[in-house]
Here is the input.
Amino acid sequence: MANYYLDGTTLNNATAVYDDADLTTCAANGFYSDGISVREQITQGSGCLLLPPQICPTCATPCGGSIGGNGNQGLYLLDLDVGGTATDTGAIIVQFNPASVPDGAMCTYDGSIYNKFSAPGIGLLQSTVAGTPTYVGRTTSDTCGVQAGTFAQTLTVFNYQQGNFVNSGTTQNVSIVPGQGQLTAGQPGNCVMVVPKPNPSPALANFQFIGPCGGTVFTISIACPAPLTGFMGTAQTQTITDVCGQQNISALSIYTTLYHQPVPVTGTQGVVTVDDYVFNDHDGVSFPSDGFYLQADGSIFELQSGICVQVQDICSTYTVSDCLNGSSYTMNRRFGGGLAVGDVIQYHRITNPQTSTASVDPTVHCGTITSLGQGVTINAVQKSAVTYACNDATHCPQ
Here is the structure.
């Protein structure tokens, strides 16, 4: 490998590359890299000139690991290789832990900016200023005006290279305005971000972390893209009563597949709890509308901005004994009360309950109510509130 000489302290702030330490002989035209950036050198007049830096995709840090940032006040840049093959799709799950001292974070991928976090026990943390980093950390450690939005300084830029953040020799002006600071009374812990990657390319995601208040300490863990876990949920409603009853929706169209990302990430996949994300698709591209939803375990959850803000186990249920085979099936009371143990009702069975492939079987069955419950896991859907008899050949299978 040849030695080259720069007329600057780094490749990014140099204007040319030379073959000799006296900087008299221009290096050959072509591309030069420091492992992070790539610049093309061309001839200019009797001399040479480096064109603006480009990111080197093959030099980017691979996804799937954890990185620690520990250093001076500054802007920390990380270029991450998230894969470019047909199997490199799904959702990129980011865990960012700022410890106490406020730090900002943001991801730019495929032309879009992502700055939304959910923190365990806290929930949504997101800058109210579109396209800007979200600052998280503890309010009592804010010594530089993050929460007030009064910070404005020139910060040193650090690039992540070969396992360390390295001083690039460049600086950048950084301002924080009101709304970017989302600081909390205690440490926020592992704040979770979901970056959608529905397509194989691009393969490069750009992250920036900002330590504005003196020194900074943070950890970042970024998983490679993978499809989110699906689960059986209901269509959205605006009230708890409606989501339990779903009176105005056909029994065959009540259920749909939703997709789940637990917060913290060690939570149970497919069982939504407070602070978790819920999406319409396994890549994490879009959120369901705000409102109440029902999952197959009988619990109701409320979504706001795609994040669960409450869970309640309050839906009343009927358990029936099937008129033909005697098996037990449990369903929500879709049409209010009025039925009692011993009544015979029509119902549909749910195939593959509590999975992403759950669906309502169109076959009509009849069963005798054996018990009334509340917040019980279901595997069937009540068809109507009309009572029949097991020997009713017109309405019940024989």
Notes: The CA atoms of residues 61 and 80 lie 5 Å apart. The chain has a mean pLDDT of 90. The chain has four domains: 5-55, 60-222, 229-312, 316-382. Helices lie at 240-245.
